User: Which sequence fits this backbone?
């Protein structure tokens, strides 16, 4: 497992707006989209390419193409806020969906998978999982397990923010490259990232 913290001025600018408690929903969506573009560009920096020369109006130009084309798997619901940016960069990529529900109980926070819809052609294909927050790592580990079980790899998790607890949980659970905008301080008693940005799903789609 490896972790890349993207220290790019554009990533920092988008993240500043995402963190602000008074950022309106439309702006939150716009800045998550922008941050995703920056993070995914970094995540694909070492993607496999093959030669693919093209004919220009004036001759032949050396070129390359992504091969194999990565698949994209947003974690429903918050990961959907990152999908449009990913599809702008990879418009022909196959897309799958995994839905994870946060369960809060007296014994702690857990997660339940309620949706699994993965492309059929994942064998040997790199996969980028999209989820704004890597908190406890429980839901990310389950999604990565499902994708790996389909024969996919290598695996990359792109998230806006990560907590140390989530990173440590993935070290023993998955072979994955985590690409994030920041590694925050810790999780609070409710297992939210501190200082974080609140509940990304609520800020994208809910009443927060």
Assistant:
């Amino acid at each position: 497992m490896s972790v890349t913290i993207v220290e790019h001025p554009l990533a920092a600018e988008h993240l500043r707006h995402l963190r602000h408690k008074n950022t309106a929903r439309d702006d939150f969506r716009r800045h998550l989209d922008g941050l995703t573009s920056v993070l995914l560009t970094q995540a694909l920096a070492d993607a496999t390419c093959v030669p693919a020369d093209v004919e220009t109006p004036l001759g032949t130009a050396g070129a390359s193409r992504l091969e194999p084309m990565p698949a994209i798997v947003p974690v429903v619901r918050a990961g959907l806020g990152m999908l449009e940016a990913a599809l702008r960069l990879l418009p022909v990529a196959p897309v799958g969906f995994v839905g994870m529900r946060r369960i809060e109980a007296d014994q702690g926070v857990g997660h339940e998978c309620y949706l699994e819809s993965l492309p059929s052609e994942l064998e040997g294909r790199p996969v980028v999982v999209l989820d704004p927050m890597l908190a406890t790592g429980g839901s990310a580990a389950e999604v990565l397990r499902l994708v790996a079980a389909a024969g996919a790899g290598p695996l990359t998790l792109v998230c806006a923010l990560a907590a140390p607890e989530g990173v440590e949980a993935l070290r023993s659970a998955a072979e994955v490259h985590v690409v994030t905008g920041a590694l925050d301080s810790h999780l609070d008693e409710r297992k939210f990232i501190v200082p974080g940005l609140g509940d990304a799903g609520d800020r994208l789609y809910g009443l927060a």
Remarks:
- DSSP finds six helices and 14 strands in the chain.
- The mean pLDDT is 93.
- Residues 2-205 form a domain with the Rossmann fold fold (CATH 3.40.50.2020).
- The chain has one domain: 2-205.
